[in-house]
Amino acid sequence: MIIGLTGGIGSGKSAVSDCFEKFGVTVVDADIVAREVVEPGTAALRSIAEHFGDDILTSQGALDRAALRTLIFSDESQRKWLEALLHPLIRNEITQQLSQSSSPYSILSSPLLLETDQASLADRILVVDVPVELQIERTVQRDSNSIDQVKAIINAQSSRELKQQKADDIILNIGTIEELEKDVSALHRRYLQMV
Ligand SMILES: CC(C)(COP(=O)(O)OP(=O)(O)OC[C@H]1O[C@@H](n2cnc3c(N)ncnc32)[C@H](O)[C@@H]1O)[C@@H](O)C(=O)NCCC(=O)NCCS
Ligand SMILES: Nc1ncnc2c1ncn2[C@@H]1O[C@H](COP(=O)(O)OP(=O)(O)OP(=O)(O)O)[C@@H](O)[C@H]1O
């Protein structure tokens, strides 16, 4: 059984998947996979440099993620171009990593689970839900992004309401980390009964 874990930027997916990992559940994280497919030497990184120019690379030849972030969240057509290149590669790698899992069930954590065909890889959808104001507050605190950039990223993602509609399970992450851990623990027991 594969649980698709999703939520917008800064909603708490990593906090939730860290708890599942502590219970021995295999977690495949789409954000980590998205970094792997553009490592130096990959065909995808070469395509990105050809399309955006060598300024999109650091002096070490790696992807300048901050530069690409600024570009794609201010120009939808460039974001669509990047997604058309990367999403098939990300999906393939996710499938590969999930096939190697040996835990009773696995977690696929992805910010774009419901926006892409990654949803079809999951048997159940678990949404980490937070009010947008808290999402922005936690993200700005964690990252060096400005409020406007965080808002632009949120606008490129599906709405809180749509995620709630598509969810089989919802964790409302408005309390403490300890409360979040209790909610994950209860879900873990339920999931074990389902496999
Ligand atoms: C633009 C990039 C280089 C910025 O890298 P950076 O290290 O700053 O951020 P990181 O990759 O950790 O992503 C942070 C968050 O941004 C949001 N985000 C990233 N890509 C997208 C996107 N295409 N659409 C909407 N939100 C996105 C997600 O909430 C994600 O958790 C990077 O996000 C990227 O390559 N995005 C395109 C690939 C993609 O769609 N990844 C999402 C997982 S499938
Ligand atoms: N219940 C909570 N109480 C306080 N802080 C929290 C709570 N849950 C998450 N956080 C913090 O909020 C920030 C965002 O959480 P996290 O990194 O887990 O989100 P995410 O959904 O994985 O984000 P992204 O989509 O950007 O990868 C982190 O700094 C995290 O420590």
TrEMBL record:
Q: What is this protein called?
A: Dephospho-CoA kinase
Its annotated function is as follows:
Catalyzes the phosphorylation of the 3'-hydroxyl group of dephosphocoenzyme A to form coenzyme A.
Entry's family note: Belongs to the CoaE family.
**Mostly located where?**
cytoplasm
The Swiss-Prot or TrEMBL record annotates one GO molecular function as:
dephospho-CoA kinase activity
> Where does the signal sequence lie?
none
Catalysed reaction equations from the record: 3'-dephospho-CoA + ATP = ADP + CoA + H(+)
Positions binding ATP in this chain are G10, S11, G12, K13, S14, A15
One cellular component term from this protein's GO annotations in UniProt: cytoplasm
Lineage of source species: Bacteria, Pseudomonadati, Pseudomonadota, Gammaproteobacteria, Alteromonadales
Keyword Metal-binding found: no
Record's subcellular location: Cytoplasm
SUPFAM superfamilies with a match to the protein in the record: P-loop containing nucleoside triphosphate hydrolases (SSF52540)
